[in-house]
Amino acid sequence: MRALLLVILGLAVGAMGATSALSALRQGTPFHDGVMAVMQHHMGVLQANVRAKQCDAKGSASHLARLRETAGDIREAFPDMEPAFAQADDGLLKALDRAVAATPGTCEALAVALKPVGDACQSCHQRFR
Ligand code: HEC
């Protein structure tokens, strides 16, 4: 019984910690939400194009370039984050540099280029979101 209470207390404290970390982020400007929303938009369009099998090289290049540019703002949008956050950010930037350099001309190539990008988004979210 006592052990169970401690577990529940631990969960409650953990949840409180998580909420206060997030609200600390939210007390800043809406800038970081904007950066994420813009990246989500371009990622979403590219993924929808792959699903629709309509991946023209020019459109893909432009969405990838916008994604890369916006990702360059992550560090300014989340100031004072721990070094592991910057590493996660570097992972995304590298994946995007490669995707831009690959200039995917087919849906297959675009899907291959997007995979590490999506993984980089996800791996940071798992830790920090
Ligand atoms: C280096 C870490 C990191 C990377 C990389 C990252 N994100 Fe995020 N993202 C976050 C954090 C932290 C939040 C939570 C921010 C908050 O709740 O205020 C977030 C929130 C979001 C949200 C919700 C925004 C909102 O309004 O609350 C979306 C959508 C999103 N990210 C999309 C993406 C996409 C798409 C990528 C990859 C192209 C990506 N993120 C890469 C850290 C990251």
UniProtKB/TrEMBL annotation:
- Provide the GO biological process annotations: electron transport chain
Q: Which GO terms describe its molecular function?
A: electron transfer activity; heme binding; iron ion binding
Gene3D superfamilies linked to this entry: Cytochrome c/b562
The transmembrane segments are none
What protein name is recorded for this chain? Uncharacterized protein
Species of origin reads Luteibacter rhizovicinus DSM 16549
